[in-house]
TrEMBL record:
Alphabetized CDD domains for the sequence: FNR1
Domain FAD-binding FR-type stretches: 2-105
One term of GO molecular function: nucleotide binding
Species assigned in the record: Bradyrhizobium huanghuaihaiense
UniProt protein name: ferredoxin--NADP(+) reductase
PROSITE patterns: FAD_FR (PS51384)
Gene3D superfamilies given in the database record: Nucleotide-binding domain of ferredoxin-NADP reductase (FNR) module, Translation factors
């Protein structure tokens, strides 16, 4: 278990029948950049059962936070969803991932496009003061099937807007755009379609995609990532990575949990 740190669960909150978040202690030696992920999990029959999870907490926060789906027959989440305050989880000692601002060339508007629990790395990034220093506008789009699944994101953004430090910082810079596909809501449709039709930008009162000023991060379902990758590439946007910054970056560590 030397590759993993044992941490204590501090709180658990169930948002819907299929979504929950939890916080845990953080080893003082655990370092990460906002937007990265680590391997986390549980000890099962004496062995570590691990999956990749983005940190939803920022790197300046003392506790770690994670946002998870519940997969009833999932090897890990069928167990993880039952954790309670005081339980022990395992956290990998090394953080990694492509959703960091250093993998993007400088721009003016940052689009954070997510579906489901793909919101997690962006929960970390929108708590980063440097993001607001480097971009004039940050657009956080979160697509879900049902309105209830937006609860975590709505709670997150509302908390930041009321935060003593972040409130003034984000008031004129952070645009939150939740959308659902299966229920009536003020924003309806898949993020891919809303961008392709320009509806998302019309709704927020801003101009459409501009390769000169827009930088993009993507995290969500494989289908959404594939569609948007093709769309952006067709428009001349170049994917960035650790060795060569680009116009957009994608987290490819999506796995069935």
């Amino acid at each position: 278990m030397s590759a993993f740190q044992k941490e204590t669960v501090l709180s658990v909150r169930h948002w819907t029948e299929s979504l929950f978040s939890f916080t845990a202690t953080r080893d003082p030696g655990f370092r990460f950049q906002n937007g990265q992920f680590a391997m986390i999990g549980l000890e099962v029959e004496g062995k570590p059962l691990m999956r990749a999870y983005s940190m939803a907490s920022a790197n300046h926060e003392e506790a770690l936070e994670f946002f998870s789906i519940k997969v009833q027959d999932g090897p890990l989440t069928s167990r993880l969803q039952k954790i309670r305050e005081g339980d022990i989880i395992l956290v990998g000692r090394k953080a990694t991932g492509t959703l960091i601002t250093g993998n993007l060339i400088p721009g003016k508007r940052l689009l954070l496009l997510s579906t489901g629990t793909g919101l997690a790395p962006f929960a970390s990034l929108i708590k980063d003061p440097d993001v607001y220093e480097n971009y004039e506008t940050i657009v956080l789009a979160h697509g879900c099937r049902q309105v209830s699944e937006l609860a975590y994101g709505e709670h997150l953004v509302e908390g930041l807007r009321n935060h003593e430090f972040f409130g003034p910082l984000i008031r004129d810079k952070l645009v939150y755009y939740p959308t659902v596909t299966r229920e009536p809501f003020r924003n309806r449709g898949r993020i891919t379609d809303l961008i392709a039709s320009n509806q998302l930008f019309d709704d927020i009162g801003q101009g459409g995609l501009d390769i000169e000023t827009d930088r993009i991060m993507l995290c969500g379902s494989p289908g959404m990532l594939e569609e948007l990758h093709a769309m952006f590439a067709a428009r001349g946007f170049v994917e960035g990575n650790h060795s060569q910054p680009g116009h957009f970056v994608i987290e490819k560590a999506f796995v069935q949990r």
